[in-house]
Write a structure and sequence with these properties.
- Two copies of one chain form a homodimer.
- The first copy, chain A, is α+β, with helices and mostly antiparallel strands and 340 residues long.
- Chain A is 39% helix and 21% strand.
- In chain A, helix 2 runs antiparallel to helix 3 and helix 3 packs antiparallel against helix 4.
- Chains A and B meet through strand 3, strand 4, helix 5, strand 7 and helix 8 of A and strand 3, strand 4, helix 5, strand 7 and helix 8 of B.
- Strand 7 of chain A pairs antiparallel with strand 4 of chain B, so a sheet runs across the interface.
Amino acid sequence: MRLMKRLSILLALLIPFAANAQEKAPPHIMFVMHGGAGTITRGSMTPEVEKQYRDKLEEALRTGQAILMKGGTSVDAVEAGIRVLEDSPLFNAGKGAVFTHEGKNELDSAIMEGKTKMAGAVAGVTIIRNPISAARAVMEKSPHVMMVGRGAELFATKMGLEIVDPSYFWTERRWKGLQQELLKEQERQANPHAEIKSDDETRHGTVGAVALDAAGNLAAGTSTGGTTNKQYGRVGDSPIIGAGTYADNDSVAVSCTGTGEFFIRWTVAHDIAALYQYKGLTVEQAGNEVIHKKLEAVKGDGGAIILDRKGNFAMPFNSEGMYRGWIGPDGVPHVLIYKE
Amino acid sequence: MRLMKRLSILLALLIPFAANAQEKAPPHIMFVMHGGAGTITRGSMTPEVEKQYRDKLEEALRTGQAILMKGGTSVDAVEAGIRVLEDSPLFNAGKGAVFTHEGKNELDSAIMEGKTKMAGAVAGVTIIRNPISAARAVMEKSPHVMMVGRGAELFATKMGLEIVDPSYFWTERRWKGLQQELLKEQERQANPHAEIKSDDETRHGTVGAVALDAAGNLAAGTSTGGTTNKQYGRVGDSPIIGAGTYADNDSVAVSCTGTGEFFIRWTVAHDIAALYQYKGLTVEQAGNEVIHKKLEAVKGDGGAIILDRKGNFAMPFNSEGMYRGWIGPDGVPHVLIYKE
């Protein structure tokens, strides 16, 4: 009897463990995206337009998450999520890119893998439908990290990426945005002392993603059309490794959005990573230190998404709003737009 | 008597201070340059060629130092020193730039000021005689930080910089270097398993400078022709703020040389600055951590020059040699080439 009782107690103790072992734990994954920062307020948005943005961000989040749940890599998820936003006219990347001063669309993009620190970037490309995929091709299929202009386009063409006519990137909304900016430029030249503000929201924007996959590897990617009315040949922070895009398994994955010139000069993505790694700050603390303290002091507006290998993430921004969201193993997308 | 004695002692004690105050202390300035890292050994160099390199480096060092002694800014010194090396066919920058796969010369450059963190860069330019001056024009006369290709060339032309025919950059030595590389590429394709090494020294190289001026401000600049046989449109680390070039009065000024792709992926210049600022390492320790520990582990070859506001500097490199030198207020240039 005693032995039987002991055995039954032992069995009762072991059963929950056995059940847990059979019921597989969900993979420890996380996927965070942004769709640009700027003067995005409730007052400037109709419910219909807001719904379009929310729906598209949710679609992009779900796309990346599905890949991560199937055991796909963080690089796969970042590329796929960004492609969804590049193919939408809503965001300043791919299809919805803003116009340069000369009325062209010049696109920039970068991607980076945290495990190997492999990276790829393209800048000033005009005929590649999905610049994020061209950045990935540079990373995986060239000996280089960064390629620009016609050289990058020839490479992407050789690699079999989808090539489009430059007119693919023409959208009425962005064209009007350029005309408004050109008018404001004329007004500024006529009245050098008047403060004539640009419409931030239509003027810039960027999309980006950071991912943690089931194998514990980080990745980051960013894609943009730059800023409305930018000069021919201008490159912003998005394709600059360490400025707009950075990923390192020893620290964090970061993708930025904002006035690119400040993000290059403050090496924002790598500075956040360095504060996390060398000073032991959390993702929130490191993000706040750079986005709020350092950049606000010089009126450098924008934000960043930051993710570490434990799945901790932060989405700091110092502008009115930032399209942003995250999705974890439960598959529920969370989208935010305003300060709230 | 007692009083007189005391007074005379006091006078004797004060006189040296007064003399010191009249004899103006030399300005606390420092100027450090590099002319590229690679397989540079005593065996590969004739005394005549070595003398050419030493003479030109000394000339560049003296040029920058003279500006700093006259109270010129660190940016002035960096630009002037680099222009001397750009105008020489010896170094892979400006006149001596290497050739791309297509037989062209595409030049990259960046400059950064430590006080304001203002920065400028150009990449893939083919008709600007002194790319470092174009980088400075972008920094000071455009709203942007980085401009590439034709757009950068149009901007430089508008700014009145000296424009040359692309043939200006043709030199027999670099042309032969490309032909050798193309042959090696064919051999590699025919024998994929044979290890056919490129001639490092003719293949890449870069020039750079870091300066501390009498006002206590740092600056850094870098200029390069990239790597021999690079693909059309490839951009290396030199024009990437945070990778090949960085300056911040809160930390250090850095200019790098080496296999650019590694320097971009490891955000070398900013990582050295972050280790100095956030972990309290010295310029030597921070340089060694990145150049020797991190880069050597992945066979990323090259070096860096690093300078802080106290005038402390380091010149770490993990290749066979690095053209390098420094000059202080005494006006004596020190030039080193090999490991010694």
